[in-house]
Design goal:
Blueprint (H helix, E strand, L loop, with lengths): L3 E5 L3 H11 L5 E6 L1 H7 L1 H14 L4 E7 L4 H8 L5 E3 L4 H13 L3 E2 L3 E5 L6 H8 L1
Parallel strand pairs: 1-2, 1-6, 2-3, 3-4, 4-5
Helix pairs in contact: 4-5
């Protein structure tokens, strides 16, 4: 079984163009948010981004995969947001405790995805038309 694919983005225009390209052929899209974006802008920025994207694209199912690095506090804050997947790097004891919190909020901790970095691709529409 092939791995699931998620797309690393850094701007709102990349997210919008990705969804526009994928919504005609796929039911869901998974967006990967890097650690430095969350650390710099904060959890409130992520909350408003998720609300904006979900309101604008109601018919397309969008899931968010957020990297929290080694920050356990950030990962606990992300479990209370509308995030579907969280990536956390830490020791087994802390991972087990945060995994218990994540299970209660129906969030998957450290899933196995292939990450496609869209920050290095200039024309997303052209890339997907060739690939698909």
């Amino acid at each position: 079984m092939p791995k699931k694919i998620c797309f690393a983005v850094s701007t709102l225009t990349q997210i919008e163009s990705l969804i526009e390209v994928r919504k005609s052929k796929f039911k869901t899209s998974t967006i990967y948010i890097k650690y430095f974006l969350i650390k710099g802008f904060g959890v409130e920025w992520l909350r408003s981004l998720i609300n904006y994207i979900n309101k604008k694209y109601k018919t397309h199912n969008i899931k968010f995969f957020v990297d929290s690095g080694y920050d356990q506090g950030l990962s606990i804050l992300l479990t209370h947001e509308n995030v579907d997947y969280i990536k956390l790097k830490n020791n087994k004891i802390i991972l087990n405790k945060i995994n218990q919190i994540a299970k209660k909020n129906k969030i998957l901790l450290n899933p196995n995805f292939d990450v496609v970095d869209l920050t290095k691709i200039k024309n997303i529409q052209k890339k997907f038309n060739i690939k698909l």
